[in-house]
Amino acid sequence: MTDNDVTHGIRQSPAPLDGALDTLAALGRQLDELVAAAGDEGWHADTPAEGWDVATQIAHLHWTDRASLAAIGDKAEFDALVEGAMADPEGFVDSGARELALLPRDELVAKWRAGRDELVARLESLDPGTQIAWFGPPMRPKSMAVARIMETFAHGYDVADGLAEVPPGAPVASRAPGFKGTPAEIAALALVARIGYRTRNFSYQMNGEEPPVSDLGLTLAAPDGGTVTFGPEDAEQTVTGSLRDFCLRVTQRIALRDTDLVATGADARRWLDITQAFAGMPGKGRD
Length: 287
Prior knowledge:
Helix content is 52%, strand content 8%. It is built from ten helices and six strands, in the order ββααααααααβββαβα. α1 runs antiparallel to α5, α2 crosses α3 and α6 packs across α7.
C-alpha cells in the first residue's frame, strides 16, 4: 500500500504540522463553545455512546490530552499508563474518563482547556521528526496532532448529537448541529480521512485478520466541491463517496448503511465493515 496521499487533486510532500495544530486548536474551541452554551443543564445529557454523557466525553478528551503530554515529557507517567492499558485493555480508557467526569463541571472544563492549550504548545515546540511513544506505534508530532483532531472530531459529534437529542440513524445533514459544517469541522475532515486511510492495516489487525496486500484508492467529495483522494489512481479496490461520511465511518460514528460510501472490491467492502481510525480495541460502532 502506498503512503502517498493526494488532497484536492494535488500530490503533497510532508511539511511540518501542515496547519494541523491550528485545526486542532480551532476544533477544540468549537466544541468548547457548545459545552459552554449548554451550561450545567447539558453537562449530563446522554450522548450516542452508550453510558457516556457529555461530562464523560469531555473527561475522555482531557484524559487523552494528559496521556499525550505524558508521552511527550514524562516517561514514568506514560509507562504507568501503558501498564494500566495492558492490565485492562478494554476498560482502562473508560475508567479514566469516568473518574475525571466526577470532577465539578467548572473544574473539569478548566482543566480540559488548559490541557488542550498545553498540548498544542508542546507539539509545536518539538522537532517534526521526533518519535513520540504511544499505545500503538510511535508517532511524530504531526501524527499526534492529527490523532487528537480525529478524537475531537468523533467526540465532538457525540456531544453535539447528545445535546440536540439527534436520534440514531439520523441523516448526516441533521447531525451535530453547532459542530458539523463549522469552519473548524470542515478543516478537520481531510486530516481525519488521512488517518482513516493510513490505519487500514491496523483495522484488520485489531480484528484478528491478516491485512490484504491489495492497494486501495479513495476518492471523496469535500464540502467545498473539491475532491480528496488517497492511494494509487489505478487501484482495483476503491471507495468513493462524501468526505464527511467517510470520516464518520472511520471513527465509527455512523452505520455503513447510513453513508453514501460505495466500495468496489471485496477488500474494500470488508475494510468499511471493520474500519477504525482510533487506537485500542474495536468499538461497538453505531450499527
